[in-house]
Specification:
The chain has one domain: Arc Repressor Mutant, subunit A. The protein has 4 helices and 2 strands; from the N terminus they run αααββα. It is an alpha+beta fold.
Length: about 80
């Protein structure tokens, strides 16, 4: 997320992988994480076409503060459900 927050334009999964450091994590893990964050609506994905087909472009949808609030609210809701 920090890599996407620090960017002024959408990034491909390859760019995120290079920005995070390919020696630290596999590209498949980056792709899966980006899709998971997209499904949570923390980031948004658009597509571009080019040689080889469609490519996903990812950018931050929520700020760090907004994500913290989402996580806090969801955690509180889950704990409240378990308590009852």
């Amino acid at each position: 997320m920090e890599y996407l927050w620090g960017s002024d334009k959408p990034k491909r999964s390859y760019d995120v992988w290079q920005g995070v450091g390919p020696e630290n994590i596999s590209r498949a893990s980056i792709i899966n994480s980006l899709k998971w964050l997209r499904d949570l609506r923390f980031i948004k994905e658009t597509t571009e076409t080019g040689k080889g087909g469609h490519r996903g472009l990812y950018e931050a949808f929520l700020t760090e503060q907004e994500i913290l609030v989402e996580v806090y609210d969801e955690t509180r809701k889950k704990l409240s459900q378990e308590k009852n």
